[in-house]
């Protein structure tokens, strides 16, 4: 009897292990196919110049799709062209369903500094944009003598625009507030060039709003909130 019980226990353990392996394999297969479909649809809608990746981040995400639930998704795309600019985009959505709804989420768009410089061509003639400690830095040469100058600027946002406001300027090792330049006759022209510049962010999908912007080593990062409901730009059968 003892031997029979041991054999039955071994058989049950083997069956359990086999079923677990099958469930895992099925989940991975369905998850892989779902990620592929999401990436393909994102590629068709965004038409990026670079690759698109989709990752299901909820446990047992693959098997959830069989019941109409996808779970949490992260989609990234490189080289998305919008508003005459090329950017890298990442979107994170929660509780996505196969019919294209979600519980909302967040997104980011990173714009390279070469493109930021082009968009700010009227802000500080000859200055190029970069990032340092979360602030936007404009560097270059100004005036008839070509003096090297460094301008630190803050970036603020509304739901559909961001504003770059120069705050301090450094010339020949001396730093001062941009507003104080008005008191220096020789620097009045530079002061006029360093007026705040607002850049509209148009064409956002319904339910998407700009929430913040900050400078990084790789570019200016715009952050967005995504309201619950249909996923941005999605039709039915999103997954």
From TrEMBL:
<keyword id="KW-0732">Signal</keyword>
<protein>
    <recommendedName>
        <fullName>DUF2993 domain-containing protein</fullName>
    </recommendedName>
</protein>
<dbReference type="InterPro" id="IPR021373">
    <property type="entry name" value="DUF2993"/>
</dbReference>
<feature type="signal peptide">
    <location>
        <begin position="1"/>
        <end position="25"/>
    </location>
</feature>
<dbReference type="Pfam" id="PF11209">
    <property type="entry name" value="LmeA"/>
</dbReference>
């Amino acid at each position: 009897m003892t031997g029979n019980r041991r054999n039955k226990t071994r058989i049950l353990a083997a069956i359990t292990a086999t079923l677990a392996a099958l469930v895992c394999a099925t989940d991975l297969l369905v998850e892989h196919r779902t990620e592929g479909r999401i990436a393909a649809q994102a590629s068709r809608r965004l038409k990026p110049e670079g690759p698109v990746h989709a990752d299901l981040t909820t446990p047992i995400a693959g098997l959830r799709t069989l019941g109409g639930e996808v779970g949490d998704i992260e989609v990234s795309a490189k080289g998305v062209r919008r508003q005459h600019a090329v950017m890298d985009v990442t979107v994170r959505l929660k509780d996505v369903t196969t019919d294209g709804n979600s519980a909302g989420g967040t997104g980011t768009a990173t714009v390279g500094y070469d493109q930021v410089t082009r968009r700010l061509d009227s802000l500080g003639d000859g200055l190029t944009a970069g990032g340092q400690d979360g602030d936007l830095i404009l560097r270059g040469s100004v005036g008839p003598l070509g003096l090297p100058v460094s301008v630190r600027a803050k970036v603020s946002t509304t739901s559909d625009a961001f504003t770059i406001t120069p705050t301090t300027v450094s010339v020949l090792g001396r730093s001062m507030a941009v507003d104080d330049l008005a008191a220096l006759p020789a620097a009045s022209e530079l002061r006029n060039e360093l007026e705040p510049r607002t850049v509209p962010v148009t064409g956002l999908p319904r339910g998407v709003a700009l929430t913040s912007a900050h400078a990084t080593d790789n570019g200016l990062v715009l952050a967005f909130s995504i309201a619950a409901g249909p996923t941005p730009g999605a039709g039915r059968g999103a997954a």
